[in-house]
Amino acid sequence: MAAKSIKSILVAVLSTVLLISSYTVRAQHEEQKAGEEHSANKKEGFNAKEVIFDHIMDAHEFHFVDYKGSDGQIHPVAIPLPVMLYSPQKGFSGFMSSAFEHGHAEVDGYKLAEGKIIPTAAGVTVYDLSLTRNVVQMILALALLVWLMISVAKTYASGQGVTSAPKGKQNLVEVMVAFVRDEIARPNLRHKANKYLPYLLTVFFFILINNIIGLVPGTANVTGNIAFTVVLGLISFVVIMFSSNSHYWGHIFNPPGVPGFVKPILVLVEFLSVFIKPFALIIRLFANMVAGHIIIICLISLIFIFAQIKPVLGIAASPVSVAFTVFIYFIEILVAFLQAFIFTVLTAVFIGQAFEGEHEPGDHHPHPDEAIIV
Question: I want to staple 325 with a disulfide (CB 3.0 to 4.6 A). Which of 145, 262, 299, 369 is the partner?
Fold first, then answer.
């Protein structure tokens, strides 16, 4: 019965999509027949692709919303950010991004085209050193992380949470710190858990805070930026490499118990896995955070897409679109915690593999007569 119900729902959804598609094709065909004068006066429709890429890409401002003024023009509501440029031919230039008037004006021989600053004159090289919204948001997230940890540390130093029960943000931070220590560091790093715990906690909280802030409308999707995840992946790669030992490299270049004719292939696979591990960290975080934001924007965009076909369709699609958006939004809150956990636990696993084979302090072979205490 459940399978039949699912099939019925899929048939209904497919039928609706086909009806809407046929209606769209017919509407476009009728518009083409309307004549060149009608096309020239027709307003530009909603561009979902532009909205999606404007959200997930970096920018020189925090853009919130556009509104139509009394003059009939579209006015954006945004917070401009400082632009800092260096050109070997022209030297340094500094001004606020609002001077570009959202791509309609040129400033000091530069213009804004598709979110990038380019020189207007030929043969001019420019290096963009600006504080973009991703950079500003990372700084804010770092400041929030430092304030949170210092504040909690001072509270513990005063005796709160040591001689008495923790309060407020202590409860939240203590639970997450204990979780990272007991569920990530100790099972994967064993006797070296305390050595790597500060790094794991920093990675976990930094990713989590950026994930949460990125869900606020108008903010940047920092963890959905490939440059951000590449840097985190490279840092983890360096930590993994410095944690490796001869046993680790011996298993890569001379796998034990493997036939000789298989070893060349296995050595190549094992060597490539050294670089695939940080690559997996980079792509996993980037892809998951981008996908969630794109789904949310696509669901909201459906309202405007249907409204272009017919206003009543946009009104009818609004409740469904908003309901699914709210549902996905709560899922994204869960994903924000989940991706911080996954990045941290995989980093711990890879570090643990790097020093695998070392004997823990106090390791010994028990005598047969020794009692085993569980």
Answer: 299
Separation of alpha carbons 354 and 366, rounded Å: 26
Q: 175 and 272 share a domain?
A: yes
- Which helix (H) or strand (E) segment holds residue 62: the answer is strand 61-68
Mean of pLDDT values over 73-90 = 85
Asked if 241 and 155 sit in the same domain, the reply is yes
Range of the domain at 67: 60-128
What is the identity of the amino acid at 118? I
Residue 48: inside a domain: no
What is the pLDDT, as a whole number, of residue 20?
Answer: 43
Residues 179 and 323 in one domain: yes
**Sequence-distant (≥ 6) Cβ neighbours of residue 285 within 8 angstroms:** 207, 223, 229, 232, 339, 342, 343
User: What CA–CA distance (Å, rounded) separates 268 from 239?
Assistant: 22
* Residue 349: HSE in the Cβ half-sphere, 13 Å Cα cutoff: 12
Helix ranges (DSSP H) in 57-185: 133-157, 169-179
Residue 244 domain flag? yes
| Residue 107 DSSP symbol | B
- Look up residue 120 and give its DSSP letter: S
Q: Which residues have C-beta within 8 Å of that of residue 167, sequence separation ≥ 6?
A: 155, 160, 161
Distance CA 275, CA 126 (A): 33
Whole-angstrom Cα distance, residue 16 to residue 195?
Answer: 58
For residue 361, is it within any domain? Answer: no
Q: How many domains does the chain have?
A: 2
Is residue 39 a part of any domain in this protein?
no
Strands 74-80 and 61-68: antiparallel
**Do 281 and 229 form a contact (C-beta atoms < 8 A)?**
yes
Residues present in the chain in total: 374
For residue 233, pLDDT over 70 is answered with yes
- At residue 358, the pLDDT reads 61
Q: How far apart are CA 39 and CA 72, in angstroms?
A: 20
